[in-house]
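This part of the workshop introduces the protein records we will be handling. Each record describes a single protein and holds just a pair of labelled lines. Instead of coordinates, the fold is spelled out as a row of discrete tokens. To make this concrete, we reproduce a full record directly below:
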Amino acid sequence: MKILKKASTLILSRGAKIYQNTLCNKDFLFKVHPAVSQALAENKPVVALESTIITHGMPYPHNLSTAREVEAIVRGEGAIPATVGVIEGKIHVGLSPAELDHLSQCKSPLKVSRRDMPYVISKGLSGGTTVSATMIAAHRAGIHVFVTGGIGGVHRDGHNSLDVSADLTELGRTPVAVVSAGVKSILDIGRTLEFLETQGVCVATYGDSKNFPAFFSPHSGFTSAYNVCNPGEAAKLIASTLSLGVQSGVLIAVPIPEEHAAAGQQIEEAIQAAVTQASSKGVTGRDVTPFILQKVNELTRGKSLQANIALIHNNAKVGSQIACALSKQMKDRTSKSQIHPVQNVPTDSESDVVVIGGINVDFIAKGKTKALHFGQTNPGNVCQSFGGVGRNIADCLSRLGRKPLFISATGADENGDAVISYCKHMNTRGVVRLKEQSTATYCAVITGNGELSLGLGDMDIHQQITAHHVSQFERQLLAASLVCLDGNIPVSTINYVCSLARNHNINVWYEPTDTDKACKPFLSDAWKSLSYSSPNLAELCVMNKTLGITTPEALPSSLDGTLSVALALSRPLLEHLHCLVVTLGHNGVLLCGAHDAGTVSLQPRKQKPRGQLCALHYPALTVTPEETMNVSGAGDSLAGALIAGIFQGKDTDSCVRMGLLAARMAMASPHPIAHSLSLESVDPYKVHTHKWPKPRFFWMD
């Protein structure tokens, strides 16, 4: 949420501090393969695949050949495979052929479950991901369907030993559909199903029967709660689960094909013998399953391995068909649920800027005292306003003479009606109205001296600003001189726009919004298509960390130390970005980019930056606590006014000073974007309330 950034990065000398403890960001540990990112960006079906079958499930080279065959089956059904694995402490979502080969021959790979992920990452180790770890990675990347062989379960005598697989609890808290051949008969299948029911997991057998499969056998003697007969029915079940937002997964149990089930009885007998051997040799815990699988393979002379491969192939085929059906249904559902408001707005031909981002209804509560006391009523004032990072920037640009097309999503509810009415001066033709969705709302509690005390947000609808919705405005995107992205939108949408930018030389401005979202374009090569970005120093650290660049553990407190760190962290990004606007809280703004006649070049360009790099540091403006009414839109006002100055062809100093003035006006307004904002009010040559200090110049090379 942008307000956290605003409170800490406003270019104001009022004692505001950067939130240094927000440097650590979970997403830089995940590396999404470019092919997977591209597929998600284009709303293509993607299927996640686990990797313990590669590292622990089969011997080499069967593991590698099976992994390749499974990926080929997924592609053959029209989906994109995303095999998940951990390589040298990085969680990869999608493996290259070389990475797949490396994992298949990795010496002493670890079996990585949810519990093991922190340790493996901290030590820079490699391993195969179990069902639980793969679900976490798939969900983080935005993949809804995951194919595996069989899930873990409650072990025999588990009611006494409490030996229960983490797969089951993960299914209860991660909204991913798992397609498997049920659970192995070495487990307590009845208690496994009972445990899944307790976790709230919907279990359905794939086919005409409710018989729950037992991996090598299509019949376990137990039944699923439901059954789905085809990919379309399975996709509807998954889509309904996702729409409910219940945060639990779905288990689709696929029986092994009948032609391979004939050997089931022989395999089951071998399993019982292997279980007995495991018990007599004292094999326990996570070592039980690989031990038994190895013994069963020996006892059946390879028949179990053949059946294992057959059922995995079948699961991959079924799971891919389900993923394709789900992708189509979600696109159709989005189209049917849209309601576009009809307004008198500028035509698209007038929109040289497109803004894609969030739209919120904000409730701002400001206390009358410097300190607020939780657990009791505090005196103060409460007002309603309309915000959202994308909306704020589009609003600012609209008041400063531009006519940006704003693309977003809001609910078909009263809050949505109110915010659309409020934005009647803007081009909101790109705002989709969604039934059965709530307009994003945000509540900020601010102390009497203007500091953010608490923020609460309901922002789920931002995930509906999908690449599919944005792609309906591709013509406008291709015609725009600049596209501005708000970090609240999904990674797949960011990747889609960056893909267009790469192929059509479009300038893209990325507004990170906070440290949790700063990394989004940097999870793949999408960031190389950005032209501008306006991070604070903490967000800049996250961007670098995501790229594997070393960053300081703590931010410096002195101005010179802060500028030194900001310059060092900006340099790697400027290999591809045209300009960085680094906000430094009470220390002002650092503008970094290509040198041009003694200043930083701000004008949009079509080619990579040439020549030397330099930076300009602009000191902060002074705003007293008494003047401060709202901190939620100052940073957005800075960005919007700076962009407006660029499009008016103004020099660099004038652009930045326009941004500083707009930010100050926002601080003194109850609204994120001041109603009095105009070109005249931010004209640095007409506003004489202070003297403009000369910016400090730095060479960066």
About this structure: The first strand starts at residue 30 and ends at 32.
